[in-house]
Automatic annotation (TrEMBL):
Keywords, alphabetical: Cell membrane, Hydrolase, Membrane, Metal-binding, Metalloprotease, Protease, Transmembrane, Transmembrane helix, Zinc
Protein name per Swiss-Prot or TrEMBL: M48 family metalloprotease
Membrane topology annotation: Multi-pass membrane protein
Pfam families xrefs: Peptidase_M48
Cellular component terms per the entry's GO annotation: plasma membrane
Taxonomy of the source species: Bacteria, Bacillati, Actinomycetota, Actinomycetes, Pseudonocardiales
Cofactor(s) named in the record: Zn(2+)
Amino acid sequence: MAELLLGVPTVLSSLLVVALLGRAVSQQTWWVFPVVWLVSGAIVFVPATDRVLAAVVHRLRKPTRTESAILQPLLEDVCANAGVDPSRYWLRIQNSREINAMAVGGHVVGVSTAALGLPAEQLEAVLAHELGHHLAGHTKISLLRWWYELPARTTILVVVLVGVVVLRIGQAFGGTAAIVSMIVVVALGIVAVLASPWLLLVPVIAPLVALTSRRAELHADRVAAELGYGPRLLEVLQRWIREGHDDIRARAGFRARMLASHPSCAQRIARLQQRR
């Protein structure tokens, strides 16, 4: 709920963008555009959407027969412990040398090729963590917010790209052209803010959204622990610490830590140990 509420300003900006687009197309039936856009949010609840996003956005592929033979029994055990039907979830693979896993939409559980090298008990704990995201609805909420923020984010991207092009043209010609290009860029920024004043809240909202993401990770850890996977998940987190994950985080700047989507391994370990 916190993530949905934090998405309201950007969603309002998206609504305005879609309404203005409707006005540009038709003065009489402009309202059809925002209505259709609002209804289109139902697409995130279509199972096929998860598969498309997993393949296109996250670059996840279907597991080979060998990979499926490793993962499927583990997922079935986790689902049995959670009391859910394993056929609701689809396994996917990320080609990566780093141990990683993710939950996408409401059905996809992805693991990296490196994660397949974990001991079976630890890999099962990782799957339990990802299932915890699905059981809590974290991924569906994030996907819904992403969909409704898309028009505003696309508009910002276009404005930034146009501004960069204008600045480079001005710099290429120099002199008066450079000054004019800077004025145009400033004007573009002012128009963007006047059209969607909620954009001014983004610098404040982004750290709060990251905070909700970190809390969601801790919640998924708690679900895994409640299912009996706490000790094995601790082993995975301790392995990540030995590999220097927290060292990299410590070297990151304050802003990077504020916008991090995951808590430190040390914090996750401390929370899990409190539950023992």
